[in-house]
Design goal:
Blueprint (H helix, E strand, L loop, with lengths): L2 H4 L5 E4 L55 E9 L2 E2 L4 E8 L2 E8 L5 E7 L2 E9 L3 E2 L4 E5 L4 E7 L1 E2 L2 E8 L8 E13 L5 E5 L4 E6 L3 E3 L4 E3 L5 E8 L3 E9 L3 E10 L17
Parallel strand pairs: 2-10
Antiparallel strand pairs: 1-12, 2-3, 2-6, 4-5, 4-7, 7-8, 7-9, 8-11, 12-13, 13-14, 13-18, 15-17, 15-19, 16-18, 19-20
């Protein structure tokens, strides 16, 4: 394999919006100019036929509860536009691998308060359907008679745009595929962010003078929410692109640093007398 083809093994993925557990999208595919090797993980060992010997004693399970207690956990939820009214704040009191849940709602000023709870370790997060959610929960220890104030942040979710480029880096004078995927991220009743592909969405790609388009730069996404554009890089160095998800969501692609093709090495046969 030549050095030029080895450069095609790179790929770029840019996620424009935050994301976390609950995303149901498949991993972003690499455009077709990159060869990929599929691997199959080994199957787990089957222990279903193993019989365990009985042991003496009884099994006990401790029930985890949030209250009643003498502690207070309170705070405020803010989003991109300020305090969030009507958000759900979930407090999970953690004991070992078990958890007890208490949900409270925020007031018009974004504040919330959980009184009469037990002390211990808590995981706290907030959300409001369909578009606001905490990216990461807060972990906090609450004393038995203490008061803890928390500032929770909820991020907005909606249309998400991702990119994949191959080869990466692009090679001057060679075709480069730019794959764009459009998905809709929504917050469900439990505060998890779910992503669904958006087929049939119009996408246009704006390329500067450093690019020579090899395909139409406007089209619609397929059933997987993806569309691929082909361009040739004309000049070495950073070259910018802008994607527009119609009608008006403009998303910049991280500048792609085009590189010169590797030099071609040649070998000559030795003179006949030296063979």
């Amino acid at each position: 394999m030549s050095a030029r083809h080895r450069m095609a093994a790179g790929a770029l993925a840019v996620v424009v919006t935050a994301c976390f557990s609950g995303d149901e999208l498949e991993p972003l595919p690499v455009p077709s100019t990159v060869s990929t090797v599929a691997t199959t993980p080994p199957a787990p060992a089957d222990h279903s036929g193993v019989v365990l010997p009985p042991v003496q004693g009884t099994t006990t399970t401790a029930v985890v509860v949030v209250g009643p207690g003498a502690a207070v956990v309170a705070g405020r939820v803010d989003g991109p536009d300020g305090p969030v009214e009507g958000a759900t704040v979930r407090l999970e009191r953690l004991v070992g691998d078990a958890a007890a849940i208490l949900d409270v709602s925020t007031r018009p000023d974004g504040t919330w308060r959980a009184t009469g709870v037990l002390g211990g370790r808590y995981r706290v997060r907030a959300w409001r359907r369909p578009d606001l959610a905490s990216v990461e929960p807060q972990l906090v220890f609450v004393a038995g008679t203490g008061t803890v104030e928390l500032a929770l942040r909820a991020e907005r979710f909606g249309t998400a745009v991702e990119f994949a480029v191959a080869p990466n880096p692009p090679v001057v004078g060679e075709a480069t595929n730019v794959l764009v995927r459009v998905a809709e991220r929504t917050v469900d009743a439990e505060g998890a962010v779910r992503a669904r592909p958006r087929p049939g969405v119009g996408v246009s790609l704006a390329a500067g003078s450093g690019w020579a388009p090899q395909s139409p730069l406007t089209g619609a996404t397929d059933e997987a929410g993806t569309i691929t554009f082909t361009l040739v890089c004309r000049l070495p160095g950073p070259q910018g692109l802008l994607a527009t998800v119609l009608p008006d969501q403009v998303v910049p692609v991280e500048p792609l640093d085009c590189v010169e093709p590797p030099p071609v090495t040649t070998t000559s046969a030795p003179p006949a007398g030296e063979r």
